[in-house]
Fold:
Amino acid sequence: MNNHNKLLLLFCILSGSAVVYSDGNARIFDITHKITSQLPTFDSQKGLGHFIWLVSSIKNGSMANISEFKLGTHTGTHVDAPSHFFQKYYEEGFDVSTLSLQTLTGPVLVVDVPRNKNITAEVMKSLNIPRGVHRVLFKTLNTDRRLMHTREFASDFTGFKKDGAQWLVDNTDIKLVGIDYLSISAYVDAAPTHHILLKSREIVIVEGLNLDGIKPGKYTVHCLPLRMVGADGCPTRCILTA
Ligand SMILES: *[C@@H]1O[C@H](CO)[C@@H](O)[C@H](O)[C@H]1NC(C)=O
Ligand SMILES: *[C@@H]1O[C@H](CO)[C@@H](O)[C@H](O)[C@H]1NC(C)=O
Ligand SMILES: *[C@@H]1O[C@H](CO)[C@@H](O)[C@H](O)[C@H]1NC(C)=O
Structure:
């Protein structure tokens, strides 16, 4: 490890940021939450619970350990497909396998939003996100409150109000929209906000991001959900490079 990398590592430890790899040129930030039994799930006080088990094990004389798992399509860090909120799109097959890789990877802006409000039209306007920006991750009070690290679901999380979502669609070029808790929409606006964002089938929603220690600014994002036919959402690995 050269001195530059030692310094970077020290900086990352001190700032609590999620850097997991550095070779002196590229820095990789893992913005995916670990899938554990303690992970919060929507509308539940119990968290994810037991989700993986061995079906063959070396201990029992098998050649290899092989497990199976069972997860909801909207577990942890995940994407939403158009079929999540539209029956028509479900029937037409607009599942996660149809999401655009062009949208899921590329330049991204991480923005800090005001901590005292949900994301309304007024908040969106105040952020001054320039035209031509196609991907934005919204870092909110959810990160400060460590909600993704808290097993009990919190319905008072920060998200988009419907007027904020409409403002985004009308006044920005954003096609990938990410947030740091289990839903892009404030709890009270779940249906209208998802409808507004998913209607055109051009916007990809990424939820449950881990933005701990991530500073606002420009990065490159890579989110790669499984190519799962019929799925209205899917856990995804997301990383930022800078
Ligand atoms: C291993 O064997 C024990 C005893 O037969 C059984 O209870 C257990 O379920 C087995 N586990 C696996 C992973 O095969
Ligand atoms: C294989 O499974 C056994 C339980 O049967 C476990 O103790 C062991 O750590 C596993 N090995 C690996 C490499 O995961
Ligand atoms: C955001 O909206 C939720 C209701 O969905 C509310 O409980 C919460 O207090 C609001 N957050 C802020 C910061 O105003």
About this structure: Residues 98 and 110 are 25 Å apart (CA to CA).
